[in-house]
Amino acid sequence: MRAHQIMARHLVTVETETSIVDAAKLMMDHHISGLPVVDAAGRLVGILSESDFLRRSEIGTQRRRGRWLRFLLGSGYAAADFVHERGRKVGEIMSSNPVTVTEETPLPDLVDLMEKKGVKRLPVMRDGRLVGLVTRADLLRAVASIAHQIPDPTADDNHIHDRIVRALDGANWCPLGLQVSVRNGVVHLRGVIMDERARQAAIVAAENTAGVKEVHDHLCYVDTYSGFYIQSAEDERAAAVKAEKETAG
Fold this sequence. Notes:
The structure is a single chain. By secondary structure, this protein is of the alpha/beta class. The chain contains ten helices and eleven strands.
């Protein structure tokens, strides 16, 4: 998938001369956490986000730097802080030089950029013109809409079994003595794990296999030093229910 497939196309924007009060109202009215900022010619010049409202004199949250830090940073930093904390226009508090992408940027690259640059939204450009915006929420919607969307015609029990075994067999955390049973898309996992994190990894591998409806965990944890073992929480609950019924009977 690429940016143009998930981006928002109908954008709410503000100009550099827009008051921060009007911008804040726009964000609240449209339930959005950021706004692209354009100049009088419509060119993208910045991004205004919720974080730009954190350090404000109106609410007493100005940045307080120690005397020595102020001395080391110099007067320029103090001046920039003053503008950001007391500026009345969007252009005075926005983040300039935003990171942008094109419509053809693949989703893995979008995620890499968001992580490396520490941003939550990426303007999408075409020939220097703003045409869309990709946010983390758009990525979330993409995951929700695509996961298990396309049925697999070969997702019968035998295929499911073989795919789960292949997915686990190559992992260095694969349960020892792995046994996978499948009936009507319901998977049961058995085996021995030496690290509790391997339990969740095995379950996730099974859940990501096409055709799987449920995954039941029967993996047993064994401590390599003491030999102490723990049944899965599911098996412990089943044992407790069984014991309770036997006692009541």
